[in-house]
Amino acid sequence: MAEFYDKWRKYKLKESYVLGDDYYDKTIEQFFEQMKEHADKTFIFFDTETTGLSNKTNQLTEIGAIAAEADHWQFRELDIENFYEKIALSPVTKYRMKKSKEKDPKFALKLTKYGVSNKDFKAKHGKDAFQDEKETLIKFFEFVESQENPILAAQNAKFDIDFVNQRAKQLKIGKSLDGYPIFDTMILLKMFHNPMIKTLADQGHPRAEKILKAITKVGKWGGKPYVSASMGPVSDAYEVDVKDWHNAIADVKMMMVMTQHVFNALIINSQTDIEKYHSHAVYGLKKKNKKK
Questions:
Q1: Residue 104: is its pLDDT beyond 90?
Q2: Is 72 left (phi over 0), alpha (psi -120 to 50) or beta?
Q3: Would you list the domain boundaries of the chain?
C-alpha cells in the first residue's frame, strides 16, 4: 500500500511548476496575491553545469545550491552551509570525448570554467575535491530533503530538473525532484518583469528605458531584436556581478540577487498595467507548451 501511495504521489505532483497557466492573464498585484501561498517556503536556488545539453548522453560537472527564506520577497540566505560540488568526469564521459567527432569536444567544459583554477579548488577543498556524480546527486537530494517546506528555484528550471532526474535514473539512485514545487525565474522574467519594463519604457520612464536597452539583444545572424529573459543580460542591467558566470555556485548567487532586484521592481511598480505585453508573453508560452 505504501509503495502504491508513493507512486500515486509522484504521478500527481510531477512537474508542479509554480508559474503555470493559473498565472496567465494576471496583473502584478494578482501575481503577488497568488504567490502568498509560497511565502513561507524555503526557496532553494540551484544550478547545474554539464558536459552538454543532452541528459541521456552527458553528465553533470557541478551542482550549486543556496537555501533562502522569502522574507517579503527579499530572499534572505539562510544561515546554513551552501551546497557546492565539482564532479569528476566518468570513464564513459572521457571515452566519449576522446572518440567525439566534434571540433572541440571539451567546449562545454571550457564554457562552464570546469578546468579553471582547479589547483586553487583542490587546495581549498582537498585532493579529493572532485566528487563522484552519483554520490554528489545523493548528497544534493539529502540537502533538498533537509530543508523545511522546500521550493526549487532555477533559471530555465526544466533543463536542470530534467537533467538531475535523468542522471539519477541512469545511476539507479531511486530518487528524483518530482513532487517539489518549481519556481522558474526565466518565466518570471518573461511573464511579468519584461512586460513591466516595456510598459514603463513606453511611458517614458528613464530607468525602465535604460534597463530595456540593456536587455534588448539582436537575434542570431542579424535577426530581429528581442528582449532577453536570460540571467546574464538582466543581471547586468541591474548591475549584479556577472564576472563568474557559468560557475554553478556563482550562478546561483547571481540568480538570487537578480530575483531580489526583479521582485523589488515589481513591488515598486505593482499598479502598472502590463496587459499588452503580458498577453504577448502568455501567447508565446502557450505556443511553446503546445509543441512539447
A1: no
A2: left
A3: 13-291
